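Form 12-C: Joint structure prediction
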Amino acid sequence: MRRVSTIAVAGIATAALAFSVTACGSSSEEGSKDAGIGLAYDVGGRGDHSFNDSAAKGYDKALKDFDVKGKELTAKDGDTDADRYDKLASLAEAGYNPVVGVGYAWTPSLTKAAKKYKDTDFAIVDSVVEAKNVASLVSAEHEGSYLAGVAAGLKTKSNKVGFIGGTDSALIKKFAGGFQQGLKDTNPKASLDVQWVQVGSAKGFGMPDRGKDIAEGMLSNKVDVIFSAAGGSGAGAIEATAGKKGTWSIGVDGDQYYDKGLAQYKNTILTSMVKTVDGSVYDFIKSVIKDKKPESGVQSYDLKRGGVSLSYSGGFINDIKPKIEAAKKKIVDGQIKVNDTYKD
Amino acid sequence: MKKLDKERVLLAVAAPVLALAAAFVLTALVLLATGKEPFNAFGIMFDYGVKADSQVYILNKATTYYLAGLSVAIGFRMNLFNIGVDGQYRLAAFFAAVVGGALKLPGLVQIPLIILVAMLVGAMWASIAGLLKVYRGVSEVISTIMLNSLSGILISYLLVDGRLADLDKQTNIVATDPLPSSSHFFTFPAGGGLDPIWGFIVVAALAGVGFWFLLGRTRFGFDLRAVGRSESAAQASGVNVKRMVLTSMLLSGAMAGLIGMPTLLNDTHQFTSDFPTGIGFTGIAIALLGRNNPVGIALAAVLWGFLERGANRLEFEGYDKEIVGVMQGVIVLCVVIAYELVRRYGLKRQQQRVGAELAAQARADKGIDKTETEVPA
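Section 2 - Result
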């Protein structure tokens, strides 16, 4: 054991030395101002064909329109709040303004960053952070999903409808709750099969193979319309419905009919529940860079404001448009109050 | 004997140094292949990693990783692959957070209680795999992997608005009741507007000392290592192998229960749906890198924290953030290979020396023979 203690002493001494030598070293803070737009994606990042890509679209448009530079960072699986804070702080330190956190997982880290960098304008998507220099860009996913439920209720022939959620998080339950209500209000005979790609983990947004498996399972149970709110995993479900005649998928976040990666399946994409993250992100950036009057507080992108909508691309639901528009009017007028959570 | 010891020290140090150097070269090659300048990247990582706020970050992160490494190492020392540390620590942290959020006792009572709950839950979850192995011969690798999945599902079921958690509709975050402020663990202020250093680092250090004492200085530790070397030999010498398997699984699980504690008691003060995941697997890498030795694991944990800190910066500087993941993977591979190479080299040296000694002896014997019998040439 003597040998171990020698190494131990040497190791501790080296480590202690390394730390004490640099303990008085400078902090990693430095930087200028007005470096451009800082965008921090959630896990998956640019290229997920879904939520993050939608934000990227708004960001790209802002870069072009306002002729500014920008920097994109992406959270990785397993990042702690300290890691996320580090990313936001690096952006703010380097003078990026505004800084946008895409996804509710940025809530604790962005709250902290906004407190420290009071001169930087922040925005968070899908969550609320209460601070003067933060705009909270929230969408009424449940309202848009209600309309998707109406479309599914009218289009199903087997009276069996499926919902695939990326994970059983509160946000995804907003989609499920609205969808279920829209379906039941329109077609009381229809049953709904709800499944999660990965329970308790955001990994479920990046597993197209699992999405496909679940969808195929549903299809073999005679489900003929499947709505996926599962980020990248939804592509698997779309692929599965394309493989069986007479079945439909419903896309999410962006208008997936126009998604290049899904072009070969577009004729089975009934509609998409479009959530204009691109619009809300773009509006916020514009308010900071062009209008010099940064948005702040809760910016609610609901059905009324056009923050969520159902797409008619492909013309597959043109025949039921009057019924969808009627439902939409009822929600906008407040006659229908849509559930914002799902209970099984 | 003295000389032999020196050589062993040299060999013990040679392996990690060799591994790190090889990993360094391989990563540089990967960076070159992606068309980036490698030494600049290492420079960025180093410059950023030694800054004051980075040091705080690294120490805090290493505290968690150290406990994870110890937990895995307890199993490794007796050839038991507890892959289930991941599920054990998450479940433990969850129940500890629930208990902590429900009570309002003085911190002096409540903090130990929370820690105890975590250790108990971790140990109990690990014991399932232990019992299955002892009584049904189920490989702990398989059962613990499955238990990881189960613990995830169990947490998901309970971490729901109205069950054991509350949903904040504004932020979409589901969380257990926050711990009362009396249950926040102490911290060391780092000054200068920096985040404080988590006080749990003290507990982690104590756990390391406990690990060293238990395995290196007690009968139990000797038995445990003996089982790890050879189960049948240990059995023959009167060690109850079944009991050892179960006990070490329980210990490993109890240690796993501590992994979530620095985060819970020093940082988040509640269990949310995005409580850090995957640390159990990081622990496997760290235990391997640290050679299941408490000091080695500490160095590995610090190195891991340093690499992750650097990863954040590399991404900012326009490098692919995956490069650090590659680096970590390469380090683990290199470590495993380097240790094996050094072990074989050491064995060969030993054989040569023993062979030489025997040969010398034989020659000496022969010499005596010669003088006595005068064998004709």
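Section 3 - Comments
Chain B touches chain A through 56 residues (CB under 8 Å). The mean pLDDT of chain B is 90.
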